[in-house]
Amino acid sequence: MNIYLITGGAFQGKEQFAKSEFPNIPVLPKLHLLIRERLSEGMNERETEDDIFSKIKEMAGGGSIVVISDDIGYGIVPTDPFERRWREVTGRIVTDIASKAYQFFRVTAGMGERLK
User: Fold this and answer.
1) Coil/strand/helix, residue 116
2) N or C: which end of the chain has fewer CB within 10 A?
3) Measured between alpha carbons, how far is 92 from 95 in angstroms, rounded to an integer?
4) What does the CA dihedral 35, 41, 44, 49 come to, rounded to 10 degrees?
């Protein structure tokens, strides 16, 4: 399975970049929101990560998949405990995906920069 990871700020053209660069590959968009949803449902970090990787494997079907996540780790650390936990868990899961990814891109203003 080949994972293509795309990250970047909100509204920077990540999905459009994915469609133009990887036109016939399934896309898992808004990973950061999926992680938030799982944590809101009461899953712990390990369960959330296992669920995410199961979804990635299922969608890839033994082939390739594009995973897209907003960068949410910049700026002021949230004072709300849930928001802080979500930010930290998302960072760790995206880092793990990046380590396993075949290619990794950061998109800014619609322009992708290959990091791996």
Assistant:
1) coil
2) C
3) 5
4) -30
Around Cβ 29, how many Cβ atoms within 10 Å? 16
- Kindly report, residue by residue over 39-62, the tens digit of the pLDDT: 999 999 999 999 999 999 999 998
For residues 50 and 11, is the Cβ–Cβ distance under 8 A?
no
Amino acid at site 72: I
Find the mean pLDDT for residues 4-14.
Answer: 96
The identity of residue 73, as a single letter, is G
**Hey, what CATH topology would domain 2-114 get?**
Rossmann fold (3.40.50)
Phi, psi of 76 (to 5 degrees): -75, 135
CA angle in degrees (0–180, nearest 5) for 49-51-54? 110
